[in-house]
């Protein structure tokens, strides 16, 4: 059994709840506006923002009959899984970078 890593960084401990909230749809704006100085919350907030924008794009694509519905279903499932993994990683205190979306999030400057 692997022991979880202990994070003694005060920024991680202070920003955990904001990092979790970052993966809950439009609530991703909370850490971006209220915890700009916290590197942990800001990291997860940026990823949450990219994920949120992707979800909005999926809903627009979902307007298209049949193929759009399939893309919406698969994309919503994928976003849900990414959000869940992000929440778990934030609770563990990890700076987890999402595949593809994490690279986009790093380019955001706030």
Amino- and carboxy-terminal Cα gap: 39 Å
Helix- and strand-based class? Answer: mainly alpha
Count of DSSP strands: 0
Provide the number of structural domains. 1
Describe it for me?
Helix 1 runs parallel beside helix 3, helix 1 runs antiparallel to helix 4 and helix 3 (39-61) runs antiparallel to helix 4 (67-92). Helices cover 66% and strands 0% of the residues. The chain contains five helices and no strands. The model is unreliable at 1-6 (pLDDT under 50). It has one domain (10-106). It is mainly alpha-helical and 110 residues long.
Topology:
Layout lengths: L9 H12 L7 H6 L4 H23 L5 H26 L8 H6 L4
Helix pairs in contact: 1-3, 1-4, 3-4
Please give a handful of descriptors for the protein shown:
5 helices, 110 residues, 66% helix, disordered N terminus, mainly alpha
In a few lines, what is going on in this structure?
The chain is mainly alpha-helical and 110 residues long.
